[in-house]
Specification:
The chain is an alpha/beta fold. The chain is built from five helices and seven strands, in the order E-E-E-H-E-E-H-E-H-H-E-H. Helix 2 crosses helix 3 (113-122). Helices cover 29% and strands 25% of the residues. It is globular and about 50 Å long. The mean pLDDT is 78.
């Protein structure tokens, strides 16, 4: 019988489970949990944003009366969002390695919507070909023993 792995993830935490073939229970794979950053953007980013001058200013920046205006610069990307994407990239790398080692035959992705989108973008073709179901729910806080009622209709029989 084929081996089915279930990845349950959000933007900062994940666990990999293997579905028992006969009893349909779930057991952790050897790498039970993965953790990314739970820090908020304001905790990740520097307290002091860089300063910039309007490009339409005449004269030298800071000259009085020339129309130059100083303002705080916003980061190009949200640091928390970047950390979530990096976490998804790490999960993708792990799944790719496991797929190449033939450790699973089928994969069920269960993830919060943003995390699921990141995984869709990042997973290589070798892993995409093994996906049998995608569920856009955050079940990271659901105990393993209670997952069956959330997943049963989506799992291969």
């Amino acid at each position: 019988m084929p081996t089915t792995w279930i990845l349950i993830a959000d933007g900062a935490r994940a666990r990999l489970l293997e579905q028992e073939r006969k009893s349909r229970h779930f057991n952790p794979t050897s790498e039970q949990e993965f953790f990314g950053s739970r820090a908020q953007s304001k905790e990740i980013a520097s307290d002091d944003r860089g300063r910039s001058f309007d490009s339409a200013a005449r004269g030298q920046p800071g000259d009085v009366g020339t129309g130059g205006h100083r303002h705080g610069m916003e980061p190009r990307t949200d640091p928390q969002r970047y950390a979530e994407y990096a976490f998804a990239r790490d999960l993708s790398d792990h799944l790719e390695k496991a797929a190449n080692e033939h450790r699973f035959d089928r994969l069920v992705l269960v993830a919060a919507p943003k995390a699921l989108g990141d995984l869709r973008d990042l997973l290589p073709k070798t892993v995409h070909g093994k996906i049998v179901a995608e569920i856009d729910k955050d079940l990271t806080n659901v105990p393993t023993r209670d997952l069956g009622k959330h997943l049963d209709e989506h799992l291969p029989h």
